[in-house]
């Protein structure tokens, strides 16, 4: 009986314990059911998070274009390589989906990637030892071109996979690299983001950078998307496109000219820029040394020297000293002064001309043409006064940064503490300025005294619609001088090019009038504080515009320490760049030549000849003294250059395009302007080398022309023997004047 009672008690205890345990579990389930939480974790949110997956949709970085729409910065697909090492990834697949043979895989990858096999093998082996599911290959496996990916895929290596991404790409390599800049990466390897690091890429990074999108959906435990699961798609927002004021053709002229001088004279630095002086648009800008933004290998110069490198400019500063004196009414070109030396007092130091003996007592005008330092000292100290001149330096904005939309702009220093520094500043020594400061100030000479703001970004565009988001327009930022002063300054600067006493004869253009000012600035020795000696230890520069009466282009060029034997040879470097770029660019822009010999010719009105008989038009124009070239073998005029109803000068070449098959004429002796006209009227692509007149062509005269062919011509400054005796005589005189000017070439600071 006692045993039965004991069994009953034990049974009761078991039932009670089980009931408590059961009620506890039921209670816990009820609690979870009601609250949806376990240990303060929201199970609903947790399950959603485990089931929900998200795939990133990368946005494309905005493109950068030149003014004509040529792409300067683009995006191209590249691939990042990774390897899956976990054999569970293969599962029930009939073929292996993970890396099985480490040695073979490393050997094959190394042969294609041209990398060390042992490094790849070590990375794979380390991943296996660490029981990693997958590994990446560091820099070796990043940004692999599509062609290389195709080679690797042909090897059919198990476990090797690729993820596509976009890489910034600069199709023109060195072209305007210090303006366009380049991109870099931020974040770690798992969250790498492209960001602007230099140039326009950095300055306008906020616009160029897009906003990534994503696809979000629910998946089962095997990673498959659930049916009828909510899917959220957020499309990426690509970055805005940037359109620059750069002109790809003028930029090419500039790049080629700088490369020629770099290879010939091996200078320490070259900096040059071309601007539309009426609007402030920068059409071209380049420096040497430069770099390839695609590789950025062995970069010698990180700076855009046009905005980042202030230096003592030399006599280009005399433009603004002269303008200030004329504006103040203290300049009389017929007044005379004693050239050679200038002293503030009997016991003071002397200011010297580049010829210390001077040229005797000469007029102020002649002093300007000869680029006399003494005449600048006279104007500042005895005519204007230092305080007045300082006001003009501020009016010309030479005391501040230009505000151009380029990264890295720096400002020079106006050294103006005492009389010596004040006077030397007047002729470009002691105080420092950037080329962009000088160019900005010089725009006043093209706009009746108004200065305009320089800029390089014209439009910010929506990537899909090309709608303009932001647009830069011409901005007048000051008027330091009056139109009358401009007229006098331009006239005197024009004479520095054309007169025998002028120092800029080497910068005369073949078919356009031009004006400007040379500079030959001494270079301070950082160790001694004194100026360096030797023929090459100068910064040779020139700032000029053309044509003279209505400037279309403003250009600054400076060459530092070229390899030359004599100081006067310094102008060979700068004048080559100026003449080559200016002449070619003005022809490219279809600017009508304005030299005096052209003005003396008769003007002839062209009629509307379209549809007329080729023979009739040919006879009429030839009788009027016009040189006519017929393009094609048809009987009727289909097109004409220059256009109908325009005026041409006698002896100017006119092109008639007939309705027949086009043939190439003999282009020997043609000007670049004429060849460009031929390209435009026929639609044929054109490339050209050199300046002056055509001496060779790649398509033989008489051959059939078609728009899918490319015409290449080589030009030389020597005329063909068939040209006018009178024109040859004029050129000979011009060459003699240029040689005389070289002998007189300019300035050495004592």
UniProtKB/TrEMBL annotation:
This is serine-type D-Ala-D-Ala carboxypeptidase. It comes from the Bacteria. Residues 713-750 are annotated as: Disordered. Residues 657-717 form the PASTA domain. It is found in: Membrane. It is an enzyme of class 3 (hydrolase). PANTHER family: PENICILLIN-BINDING PROTEIN 2B, PEPTIDOGLYCAN D,D-TRANSPEPTIDASE. Belongs to the transpeptidase family. The chain crosses the membrane at residues 9-31. Its EC number is 3.4.16.4. Residues 721-750 have a biased composition (Acidic residues). The gene is pbpB. It catalyses: Preferential cleavage: (Ac)2-L-Lys-D-Ala-|-D-Ala. Also transpeptidation of peptidyl-alanyl moieties that are N-acyl substituents of D-alanine. Keywords: Membrane, Transmembrane, Transmembrane helix. Pathway: Cell wall biogenesis; peptidoglycan biosynthesis.
